[in-house]
Amino acid sequence: MVARGVIHFGSRPTIRAAAVAAGPTEKKKSPFSHQFDRLYDSDLCGQKTNEQAHRQLIEDVCDLALNKAGKTISDADYLVCGDLVNEMTPSNFAAASTGLPYVGLFSACATSTSALSYAALLTEAGAASLVLAGAASHHSAIERQFRYPVEYGFQKPQNAQWTVTAAGIAAITPHEPGYPSIVQATVGRVVDYGLTDPLNMGAAMAPAAFDTFRRHLEAAGREPEDYDVIITGDLGAIGTELFRKMATEAGYTVEGERWRDAGKEYYGGDPAFFSGASGAGCSAAIYFSDVYNRIMDGEYKRALLMATGALLSPLSFQQGESIPCTCHAVELVMGEGENG
Amino acid sequence: MTASFLIAFVVGGLICVIGQLLFDVAKLSPGHTLCLLVVSGAVLDGFGLYEPLIDFAGAGATIPITSFGNSLTHGALQEAEKHGIVGVITGMFEVTSSGISAAILFGFIASLLFRSKGRP
Amino acid sequence: MDRQAYSQLEQQITPKAPLGLNLLKAFVTGGFICVIGQAIMYFYMYFFDFTERTAGNPTVATMIFIAMLLTGFGKYKRIAQFGGAGSAVPVTGFGNAMISAAIEHRTEGYVLGVGGNMFKLAGSVIVFGVFSAFVVALIKTILVKFGVVGW
User: Fold this and answer.
1) Residues of A in contact with C17 (CB under 8 A)
2) How confident is the model at residue A340 (pLDDT cuts 50, 70, 90)?
3) Beta strands in chain A (DSSP E)
4) Residues C104 and C46 occupy one common structural domain
5) Interface of B with C in 3-22 (CB under 8 A)
6) Which stretches of chain C drop beneath a pLDDT of 70?
7) Which of A18, B111, C19, C32 has the smallest count of CB within 10 Å of its CB?
């Protein structure tokens, strides 16, 4: 019996390498910046517009990931990525310049893991020997689209989150020993608890995170203790607390270092960023730097990545609609022998 | 003169407090809040109440956006007094064009000079 | 956890805006901006040929000029984060709304970007100001015609 929306990867595709490029705010404020592969001193990344800078981030991080994997662009078969700009033009342009067969994925801020599972499927199907998969966001390009002009003065509440300028790409290959393997993915359902505040996205996304979390664990037949890390995407401080409350109420033991949230940690809890970071690049940046490195160092043997996404648009919000949310989970395992 | 500064501070501050209450208690967006304040200014002038406030508080009453609504009504009424109903439509910007023309002018100049910076 | 229980939990956990503090900050910020306005007004009255009535126009224009500099150098959003309505309600906030939109949309060109988007945020204030002024003035004019009230 196959659980709905749950994919087991018998061939255990591996993440051969992963890379992150980020902007100047990250360089100054993120405690993870030393793990990022390239940091820009300017929001524009040497381009004329924020949107071009966004595309530049994606192009650069593709090159970086290929370099780290010891491959070139001609070895790659697909590019699978997405961002938050209308119609995902930064990803589209980046795909054009790589010349790779390209699938643009929109799962809002959950794109990092939906791209990973899509890449794993391509690999599992034998259709690819190397897939570049990831997600990106650019603060100024996203803010002006979803909220206000960047220089517009309005008082953000404590529960607001800060869209990051970062891109993360992973290079997925058929199974190779010594690298983290993707053993299971759970495709998120769209969960809508009727929340409407676009400045409190963590709270809107927490139920989606919990839904995917429970489905993933049930399908895997595991407990939270079986994982060395369970890291959500960009719930932020408030969303994380809500997610943990939901998990606790459902009978899971929520304690210890293994429960993490990329958005909450991204800027080291600096109150200038309110509840934490968000954006498609947020989870990608942490998963493809800190988490990946810790897996490679042997600190994490089994990791559950659960990127969350709020699937709203400025239009849907202004028309008074609630915020539909999703969460895609990917389980990574390091080491051989044990089944996934 | 010191007193006039103090009055401007208190009256201007209080109008902003009303705005903050609309933000935090009524949960209105900045756009809705400002529209409501402009409409309030326009209505207050209909009752002839805003001009006395300006006489009392000076910049404390002319700087908040409520003053914009007041000036629009005021211009309309002035013209209506001279030309009847038609003046209601034609007179609105008689008194208050400086805010809008300055904002357009400086907005355009700013777009020539500045770029937005995505920093906290 | 069902939607209702979650909604209650969400209300509990989401931090409330610190109302007292926010009101105080709005009061101080707004008051301070009006004091600057008052000073500029006196400047125009003493150094130029303006009266208390007519000094308002150049004052507003000067305040918006200051708002342009603060917006362009990225300071206005910081003032707004501190002052809330204290910086949004004064005419400088109106200026900031137009100027920030103009700066933001410069990449789409001066006609479609700057020209087309300048009123994106501030436009509604003008629309509602004009419409409400029209209604108020119309009612009052009619009332005066029927002798109910005087000018």
Assistant:
1) 157-158
2) very low
3) 6-8, 14-22, 38-39, 78-82, 102-104, 131-137, 162-163, 166-173, 181-186, 229-232, 259-261, 277-278, 302-310, 325-333
4) yes
5) 4-5, 8-22
6) none
7) C19
